[in-house]
Design a protein that fits this description.
This protein has 429 residues and is α+β, with helices and mostly antiparallel strands. The chain has helices at residues 2-22, 180-185, 188-191, 198-217, 243-251, 314-324, 360-367, 399-407, 412-419; strands at 82-91, 93-98, 102-106, 112-115, 119-127, 130-133, 136-138, 142-146, 152-154, 157-159, 162-167, 172-179, 226-227, 255-259, 262-263, 268-269, 307-313, 330-338, 344-351, 355-359, 373-380, 383-389, 397-398, 424-427. It is built from 9 helices and 24 strands.
Length: 429
């Protein structure tokens, strides 16, 4: 009897266990998205603080979000205008610091990790077309996304947007995705001093915003829209914000310049030397429009850049001449063509045997000349002496002139109307 009871007791326990294991758990473990290849097993990204992943010591799979990530959305939930800025190219290694929580994931969000504490992420190219951020490796871009109130630091500059690590053939590039207004916070103080009058800063904010949006209309690069240097606009991150700059950007939010109902390239420069010029004087292939056809300026005389003298080593000019096709020693330099304001458009280089006429703008950039508004050129022993006016290409808004107008009580609307005649101040919807 005792044996029979034990037999039925064991049989009942076995049946109960079998039934319990067949019922799906109410708490389902997340699974990886279906892909053609098996996902790589990796450990948590390495950070200097050795911060653990939140609630786990192992990576967790997450489905792609149904809406734009946190950094790409405003407080109202609406999608923001994102600007992609090339921070660096041809990189083999980099160090990115974060002062709070960050997310690290591959572009298709197949792998996504949360790092809860402040720390440092090591970034490097590891070969075979792969990049590595912490311990996460991939042959597709890896994104470092700061959570709200977290900032990223690279190369001593502070960024508020996401940083994409994009693998190239033997290196990688760093690209920040920042919302437009935050991007402008990082442009203004490096294109115009934050200590300048507020009305000048407002004019600069509108010029920079318009230029940015116009550039995005004609993007030629797959991974970025603008450079972070003079090839586009100077930019050192929107994470560090000056009160005057923030006020100027915020006060002009959504305001741009248009001509004929369209955005245009709102070029600007340091000092025009008494007057700006037609865009064709700088870029012969550009189309002349009224806002870029030249403007008078009588407010930049106070600046040290208004009038200048420069001695350029003969070796530097000879190097440029050799690239231009002149192998013999340069004896003289002459202005071959200039505008009505005195800005040279073409320069002729004379050697003992031949001559070469070149673009003054290309010549200026190659040898480091401040401006093409040249009044005097002399051949000295070991150098060439130049005298002239202005700083930069002389097209669009004169920044020193904008400051001068603001100091006289002129508004940003008046400044923009002077330097971009015929343009219309427009509020984007």
């Amino acid at each position: 009897m005792q044996k029979k009871f034990c037999f039925w007791l064991l049989l009942s326990i076995f049946a109960w266990i079998s039934t319990a294991c067949a019922v799906p758990s109410a708490k389902k473990t997340p699974t990886a998205p279906q892909t053609s290849a098996q996902p790589e097993t990796v450990s948590a990204p390495s950070v200097s603080s050795q911060a653990p992943l939140e609630n786990s010591t192992e990576p967790t799979w997450q489905e792609p979000p149904a809406q734009a990530p946190e950094a790409d959305r405003s407080s109202s939930g609406k999608a923001l205008k994102i600007v992609r800025v090339l921070l660096a190219d041809n990189q083999s290694a980099a160090t990115i610091k974060h002062n709070g929580r960050v997310y690290v994931y591959t572009q298709d969000i197949e792998k996504k990790y949360k790092i809860s504490a402040a720390g440092t992420l090591a970034v490097r190219f590891v070969g075979n077309g792969q990049v590595q951020v912490g311990s996460l490796k991939s042959n597709q871009p890896i994104i470092i996304e700061p959570a709200k109130d977290t900032l990223l630091t690279w190369n001593d500059n502070i960024y508020a947007g996401k940083i994409f690590v994009v693998p190239a053939q033997y290196t990688f590039i760093l690209v920040e995705h920042a919302d437009l207004e935050t991007y402008l916070y990082g442009v203004l103080p490096y294109e115009m001093s934050y200590s300048w009058p507020l009305e000048a800063l407002k004019a600069q904010a509108i010029a920079a915003r318009t230029y940015t949006l116009k550039t995005i209309e004609n993007v030629k690069n797959k991974y970025f829209d603008l450079y972070s240097d003079v090839r586009s606009q100077m930019y050192k991150g929107g994470g560090k914000q000056y009160p005057s700059v923030k006020e100027a950007v915020d006060a002009t939010k959504n305001k741009v310049l248009t001509y004929d109902g369209k955005l245009f390239y709102t070029y600007y420069h340091g000092n025009c030397g008494g007057g700006t010029d037609d865009v064709k004087s700088w870029n012969p292939h550009a189309k002349t429009i009224k806002p870029l056809a030249g403007a008078s300026c009588s407010h930049d005389h106070y600046s040290k850049s208004y009038s200048w003298k420069q001695d350029i080593p003969s070796s530097k000019i000879q190097a440029y001449a050799s690239q231009a096709g002149l192998s013999n020693k340069i004896k003289n330099i002459r202005i071959a063509q200039k505008t009505s304001t005195g800005r040279a458009t073409k320069i002729t280089l004379h050697s003992a045997k031949d001559t070469k006429t070149v673009s003054c703008n290309k010549f200026r950039l190659a040898i480091g000349l401040k401006s093409c508004k040249i009044h005097k050129i002399s051949n000295l022993k070991g150098s060439f002496h130049f005298e002239g006016r202005g700083y930069g290409h002389g097209i669009g808004m004169c920044q020193d002139g904008a400051r001068g107008m603001a100091n006289l009580g002129k508004t940003y609307e008046q400044i923009l109307k002077n330097y971009y005649p015929g343009s219309k101040l427009t509020v984007l919807k």
